[in-house]
Design brief:
The complex is a heterodimer of chains A (378) and B (232). Chain A folds into two domains: 2-46 and 251-377, no CATH class; 75-229, no CATH class. Chain A is α+β, with helices and mostly antiparallel strands. Chain A is 53% helix and 17% strand. The radius of gyration of chain A is 29 Å and the shape is elongated. Chain B is of the alpha/beta class. Helix content of chain B is 31%, strand content 28%. Chain B has six helices and ten strands; from the N terminus they run E-E-E-H-E-E-H-E-H-H-H-E-H-E-E-E. Chain B has helices at residues 48-55, 78-88, 104-114, 119-132, 148-160, 178-191, and strands at 4-15, 22-33, 37-41, 63-68, 71-72, 89-92, 166-170, 198-202, 214-219, 222-228. The radius of gyration of chain B is 18 Å and the shape is globular. Classes of the chains: A alpha+beta (378), B alpha/beta (232). Chains A and B meet through helix 1, helix 9 and helix 12 of A and helix 1, helix 2 and helix 3 of B.
Chain lengths: 378, 232
């Protein structure tokens, strides 16, 4: 069997022009499919940036909340109620909201303000400069050093700004795991300063963050929160809810799907057509092999091997190219949102398998139909 | 008289449908024995190639039987037929049908590779057969670098490398000049034919008649008459 596969391999790679065209077609398709889906994964990841950066196990919110950016305030008594629930180790409030900052040069800049629980500072970022305790200072804010940091004029510790006519001062520079999606800088402060500085409706708690006593307590906590009229989601569930919103309730998901399908069609067209030409050029030879005594299943095996080998080689090259392009892009563009996930890799592999299957199906049909008698007839 | 190699009885083959339906083989009977080099000659469209295909297990007849070395060919399954052809029959096609992307040795080794012979051993054996057909030192060249006569020799080496009992040659001299054609057929007869082998050749080329044991004339789907040569 190995000899037959080696024969198939030689027939394929020795036709350098067609093999190269096949590889380029599949590599290009895989590159496009992976790059597009990786960018989408990057966007989704950034859409959940607050959830990832805060890192709470359970998030309690109004049932109408769709994304972490669109909050609906909850009353203080909800915090008390949650704290008294069975299975809750602790619960803290979180403020998340947008505001306008007036910089020293007089320019205005939109920011996202995260207000951490004053007592525990649960969800605090990692400090790059300054101490976390400095957040308790008069008008103190921590600035996140991410790709949006320059929009605040590259502030230093001690830089002063205005937020809704309140004086703010940078007391620390922090870093977080993931930058936010909407291109605005992030400021961390205490919960009570946040609700003082930023005008709010009657209810001010954006989210309640819960740490359960045990993982097994989570379903029970979710039921108790539901009975209270709110929604409790684990970190993963909240991320999924946000992703689903962008995928299914905005045009983003559909556009990405269309681009991925276009890439797939391009790859299928190039590789399918080239493989078909390859089979056509060798059709008489395959007929001669049949006459000599090659069984149909052996010919099918040869064609499947050729299609699979080319597809996997193209897949590897495509993924490698995508990784390289992403790495280069991130070096030049720090806020480039792209994440190659196992899901992206799996999707591209699935598409490549379909391309291989469809290309080889056409070839197999042709080869199975050729009659050795036709070879004699010429 | 030698042992019967191929016994064909009452072969009929139809092509097409309706008014275009034609009878390519009409109740053909044929016996060939080992040690014979049998030519099938006749005008174009007379059914020579159809007969050769039916006798070699490539084209199923509408009626009749073909016993090849005692095996009823058309009662075998497709896989059994393929195995039978691979082990018992060697083919030399009119257009050679060599793979241009393989080396000459790899082309010759194909029947051995199909019989699961180790790749390297098959190539060593192929080099030996290339030497037998007078192409020593050409093993690593692609077939396109060879002349027509040399390509024909490669095709012959491929056909005989698995030591088949029956060699089928379709117009082996059609693309060759007279001298080369004669030398090829003479070579095959000298190197391949013995008491345990039989060669069937379809040809239009009267210049090679001297090498035949028997010449069967075919016309309008029937084997019409038979010439016996001194070589019998």
């Amino acid at each position: 069997m190995f000899g037959i596969l080696r024969l198939a391999y030689k027939l394929l790679v020795n036709d350098k022009a067609k093999f190269t065209a096949l590889l380029i077609g599949i590599t290009f398709a895989v590159f496009l499919m992976t790059e597009i889906t990786a960018m989408f994964a990057g966007v989704l990841n950034r859409a959940s940036a607050t959830v990832i950066n805060i890192g709470a196990r359970i998030w309690v919110m109004d049932p109408s909340v769709q994304t972490v950016a669109n909050t609906i305030g909850m009353p203080d008594y909800a915090l008390d109620a949650v704290r008294s629930m069975k299975g809750v180790k602790f619960a803290v409030p979180l403020f998340s909201g947008g505001a306008l900052v007036k910089l020293q040069d007089g320019a205005y800049q939109s920011v996202n303000v995260i207000g951490l629980d004053d007592t525990s500072l649960f969800g605090r970022p990692q400090m790059e400069q300054g101490q976390i305790e400095s957040i308790y200072a008069e008008g103190a804010f921590l600035v996140v050093d991410d790709s949006e940091f320059p929009k605040l004029g590259n502030p230093k510790i001690g830089t002063v700004f205005e937020l809704n006519d309140h004086r703010g001062v940078v007391t620390g520079i922090a870093k977080v795991a993931t930058s936010a999606l909407f291109g605005v800088p992030s400021l961390y402060t205490t919960y009570y300063r946040a609700i003082q500085y930023i005008p709010n409706p009657r209810y001010t708690i954006s989210y309640l963050l819960i740490e359960p006593k045990n993982e097994s307590d989570i379903p029970s906590i979710q039921k108790q929160v539901q009975a209270l009229g709110y929604l409790a989601l684990t970190r993963e569930q909240f991320e999924t809810k946000i992703s689903n919103f962008y995928m299914f309730q905005t045009s983003l998901g559909m556009n990405i799907l269309i681009m991925t399908i276009v890439s797939f069609v391009v790859g299928l067209s190039i590789s399918g057509q080239t493989f078909y030409t390859f089979i056509l050029e060798n059709l008489e030879k395959f007929g001669a092999l049949k006459a000599i005594g090659t069984k149909n299943r052996e010919l099918v095996l040869m064609i499947l091997f050729q299609a699979t080998f080319t597809s996997l080689a193209g897949y590897g090259l495509g993924i490698g190219l995508c990784t390289l392009a992403t790495a280069l892009a991130k070096m030049r563009l720090p806020d480039y949102a792209s994440r190659i996930t196992y899901g992206n890799l799996g999707l591209a592999l699935l598409m490549v398998v379909i391309i291989a299957a469809m290309s080889s199906y056409i070839g197999v049909r042709k080869v199975l139909r050729i009659e050795p008698f036709d070879i004699f007839r010429g | 008289m030698g042992t019967v190699a191929i016994h064909a009885d009452g072969l009929n083959k139809w092509f097409g449908e309706g008014e275009a339906r034609t009878n390519a083989l009409k109740d053909v009977h044929l016996d060939t024995t080992f040690g014979e080099m049998v030519y099938i000659v006749g005008p174009s469209g007379s059914g020579k190639t159809t007969l050769l295909s039916v006798l070699s297990g490539i084209l199923r007849p509408d009626s009749g039987t073909v016993l090849c070395e005692g095996a009823d060919l058309w009662k075998l399954s497709n896989d059994e037929l393929a195995t039978f052809r691979l082990s018992k029959i060697g083919f030399v096609f009119q257009d050679y049908h060599l793979f241009p992307r393989l080396t000459t040795a790899e082309n010759v080794a194909i029947p051995l590779i199909l019989r699961r012979t180790d790749w390297d051993k098959a190539l060593i054996e192929a080099a030996k057969y290339l030497e037998i057909v007078g192409l020593k030192g050409r093993a690593n060249l692609p077939p396109v670098k060879l002349s027509g006569g040399e390509q024909q020799r490669v095709a012959i080496a491929r056909a005989i490398i698995s030591q088949p009992d029956i060699l089928i040659m379709d117009e082996p001299t059609a693309s060759l000049d007279g001298d080369t054609g004669r030398s090829i057929v003479a070579f095959v007869k000298e190197k391949f034919l013995n008491a345990n082998r039989c060669i069937l050749i379809v040809t239009h080329d009267a210049r090679i008649n001297e090498f035949a044991t028997r010449i069967l004339h075919m016309e309008d789907g029937r084997l019409s008459n038979e010439e016996r040569h001194q070589n019998e």
